Amino acid sequence: MSLQSVSYLLFLVLVWAAAMLLRTARSRQVALLAASYLFYWLCGAKFAFLLLGSSLFNYYWGKLLRRKPVGSLLWGGLLVNLAILAGFKYAPPALAFLGSIGALPWQVASSILAPVGVSFFTFQAMSYLLDVYRERDVDPSLPEFLLYIAFWPTILSGPICRAFELIPQFRSESRPSLDDVSAGCHRILLGLFMKVVVADTMARGLQVGEGVNFGFDRVTGGWGAVDVVFLAVGFGFQLFFDFAGYSNIAIGSARLFGFRLRENFDRPYLSRTVSEFWTKWHMSLSFWIRDYLFMPLAMLRTSLAWRNLALVISMTLFGLWHGAASTFVLWGVLQGLFLVAHRQFQKYRGGRGATAWGPGAVRACVSWALTFGAISLGWIMFRANSLGQAWAMYRALFTPSAYRTLALRPNFYVVVILCVAGYFLFEAARVLVRSASRLGAVRRFVWLASPVYYAVLILAVIAWSKQASTFVYLQF
Amino acid sequence: MIDRSRLRPLLTALYVPLVTFLLLAIVNIRVAGTRFNPWSAAQNPRLKIASPVEGPPIKDPTALAVIRPLFPPESPLSVLTAPFPVNSPGALSILFVGNSQTIATMDEQPGDQYAPVWLWKLLNGSGQEPTESFALRIGSEPNLTMSELLIKSVLGISDSRRRMDVLVAAVMPDEFRWVDPREDFVSRARFSSVAPLMRDLLDGMEDLPAGARVVRDILGSGAPDQVGPPGARQAPAVAGQDRTLEDRLQSALDASLPLFGERAVLYGRATLGFHEARNLVFGVHTSSRRPIPDGMYAVNLQIVEGMLRYLRAQGVHAVIYLTPIRPIEPNPTDPSDLARFRRDMPALCARCGAICLDYSRLVPEEMWTNYPDSDVSGKGGERDFSHFTGRGHQRLGERLAKDLRADFRRWLEDKGSAPRRP
User: ipTM, 2 decimals?
Assistant: First the structure.
């Protein structure tokens, strides 16, 4: 069951109706837990046992840790979780590779699947153990903890939640307000539009063979420099609309029940520095990495070099989290180096007491363009099918003659331009509407016109829904 | 009595959902009356295209996948889009595949026929069943890409009782600008009777990596254009798990709400609108040059080579002909593309034991036409570079018959004298 399917919407309505009939928080927890396992079972029946096993282990290990909060116990728990991750996430690609070179029967290799959402629920479980160790504990009951790990809006692709944020909400006796339901519906609809209409159009094009996937997966060399730029920017936006769309559906689904999940995106492409970008992109994971990996690592030593190294290590593991591929690892290293470069630049300017150059608006534009360029260049490494492909694409950027050729269909360039322009226009319109909404007349007009906006969104989602594909981040 | 202080917030809360629902209901009613034929949409209004018709049900899904009924059941031509006859030494089964050029006529006049119909008639004399020695069947579809041609060719041999002996494929440079098959082709390639043959074909493409990748993705478990980065390939176990439930729900919605049932129409209209706007803004005309990017050209050549190798291994004769190109400038076909096409395709066919015929200059300018001035899609008065008149079809059909008759007869004789295939 995918979050953009009709069956999911039906599932959501039925679970919501059932939850509304239940009077106590405890009974709602049990109903939501059953719904979560049903949802996960529909996504991959055989892995529900892994989810249950992992949850039970972490719950009882957490109890043990609460009684005796020592480092060795914490490490023991973390290592078991890392072993689950390694075994189920990184072993299948390795076995598939063995199958592809004939070292393993093809049928065996191709039948091995990674459990859906294993990266996400394992990270939630590890954050729980770390929080118990740090005594930031909410002492959950078993059903509460099982629900925290298996909660269906977050199980497949996050947002990665923290127990101390989510479990108190599960305990709340209050029911969702009209605002919750309205906001939830809006987020789900917006998410569907972002995914089904925008992200899928970017990925496959208006017709098969005109999208980002074609540029990366079908063109075998011969990219022009302009192609590479458009593919980098196009993939960055595809990923954003895909994953932010998913996050909106997940957050909206939880909000229908009155639960507020962590946000995953906060207008990342408006960032003016790489550091700022990483506080706005896949926030639930980047803050996880910051809180549970970078900070403890950085505090081991006080030297600047060590802190920079900790940053690179953290971002490398961030890359590795996406999968066992050298491209992901190098992408992480690249992001770490960008962050270090930014820090060093700040330090250099601070040390020299340098005054600001040029007008503020120009500075902001240059800073934004550099950040956007750096992040977009990084997406090539992230999306490339091999290091060789990434290298060939980067090389095209620095080959003057490559600026004369175009390898992709014209519609691809038009769609990327429209999508990027649409994103920035939407953000500008949002700021304008927000500031103008102080005026009662504007607020009333926006409210009166909003049905047209919703009807257009719904119509577009319906029209595009026959072309729909799965979410990119389900792969991770 | 109604308490106004309570009514107002209620109405306020209900305004947005109710009005949204009302707007959608209006669109739903409007969509219910829409008529849209995807085969003829965006085509030249002067064009008569053979599009699928309701005919007697064909139970065998493989047969249905190879051909579509394009002629009314009462027409004598309906045999041309019927399943192949059961294998027999006295009949040569020929699958004729191409894009819309092969099944569309400009300014149709009484007596006009499509080129494959001419070929069928000329080969068989009066050409009536059950005496047809050359059982030609038309499997053409608009915008047929090379990967779709490959799927069609495999479908043509997937039923061992009704197997094609010869493939005649019309190949147009313009279709080399695409690679991936459309989803309905992918689903046909995944039939249980077809997928193993596709895998056999793939085994013979080890030295054609780019083409092999396309075939591998056709066979893959995800959607055809759903290819992610490495290390992440295993995951989408999600898709397809609940296909039955989802399909049932989708079917129920399709049947009960025109808004859902006509989704493809809505999408088609949206993309048509996009193209018209794009053409207007960028000044794109039917004669605007459409070069084939090198990467796509190479991948498509590999796909054709993989297909021809496989057909040869299966004992199927293959004929590739380069389709007629309108002999006028400006022309969307880049001369350098045509040159390499005319150079590479014969060489490729020679390597794979296939016949290659070059008809790129066969149809003279007077057998082509333009869009009518009254065309509303913005192409009024422009040249149509894809389709020709009935006279062009006759010329092509006669030439095919002339060039292939001897080979067809020889193959028929060989078939009659060959031991029967198990």
Answer: 0.78
